[in-house]
Every structure is written in C-alpha cells, then in structure tokens.
Amino acid sequence: MNVIECKNLQKEFEGDGTTTVAVNNVNLSFHKGEFTAVIGTSGSGKSTLLSLIGTLDKPSKGKITYDNEEILKKGKNKIADFRFQEIGFIFQQFHLLPTLTALENVLTPLFSRKVPYDKVERAKEVLKQVGLLDKMNALPSQLSGGQQQRVAIARAIVHKPSWLLADEPTGNLDTETGAKIYDLLKELNEQVGCGVLFVTHDPVLAAKANRIITMKDGNVLSDKVGATI
After folding, report:
1. Which residues belong to any copy of the ABC transporter domain (predicted)?
2. pLDDT (tens digit, 9 = 90+) per residue, 148-157?
C-alpha cells in the first residue's frame, strides 16, 4: 500500500446531549516511505486521526482511501485482513502480555495467520533488529520500559506492514530512552521503507521528522514538509 488519502474526514462523538468534533474536515495524503510527525496538545484530535487511518475506528463523515480503495466499507473480516497485511501499531502503553516471553509476545500477531515464512525465525529476526534477541526468553517484568517498547515495536513489524502508526510511543519513557525509541523508528523507516505516522506532543521529537502536521481542536493548523516547528 503506497498512498493513504483522507478526504473531508470527520469524527464526531455523542455524549450528554452534546456533539464533540474530534477530527474536523481533514484532507491529507500520506505516501509510503514518509516519516510524518503529528503534533498537538491533548484533545487536539491527533490520536483519533491515527485510529481512523489505522482502521480501528470509522469516520462520521468523509472517507479514507488506501491506494484508491475504501477498505472501511468492507466487512469486519476484510478490514482485519487489511490491517494485518498493511498496518503495524505502537502505543504509549506497551500492551505486552505479562505471562508471555518477549519472543512469544512478538509472535502474537502471527498465531492465527498463515504466512509464507517461518514464524519463530521471523520473530527472532525482528527482535535482533531492535537489539533484543538476547532477551527473547525474558518476561515483560524482567525488561525495562525502553526494552518493553522495543518488544512492542518488534511485534508491530513482525508481519511486514507497509505502515507503522505510533501513538505517543515515548510518552511513558524518560527523555533519553524516548529519543532512542524515536531513532529506532526512524532507522526502520529508512531501512525497510515503511511509512511512519508518529503522534507526539513533544516538539523536539517532532522537529526531527521529514513532515510535521500540527493539529488543534480537530483541525489541521499546518502541514510542513522538510521544515522544523
């Protein structure tokens, strides 16, 4: 999948008799290979936008196309298949299963899927890629926060997605560890060629991206390519 397009995209939430517009008439295009930071304060709509792009939620209005196809109009199974084939997710909370080893956690996206490669060898390959092959038998409780996030990144790329969607992946980490995680994502972007959408409230990290989208109150305030904030 090479191009994602958001056209007049809107997401509204109903509650207590009021309507909250989380994403407001957004028009954006993303091309495979880009490293894009989406920045804004809490409540700006950046995480909602990421959920919509990642097919975890559906828009109230407008549409998203993936290589000119509207995946979200298809059934749940088709959407799930598309998500597995094309999207890798990384979150602020690591969401590792506490009773599984690092290797087993990385394998979880592949458990019920048929793939044309050895699943265990692929999991070991990505753990090596993130520098944690020596920790493959460790439980999450035996790993630092930065190491747990590296396991989560390995899990996100084990199925060879076209896009990595990272929602505040450094939010639970100290500044130095967060910078290393960001650098790892940048390295994966450059080496593997997957597109990266990186949601953050940190202008220092965002300034390292190739493209910076700034959001406020659900609106896109600016979209800068090759520029710093």
Report:
1. 4-229
2. 999 999 999 9
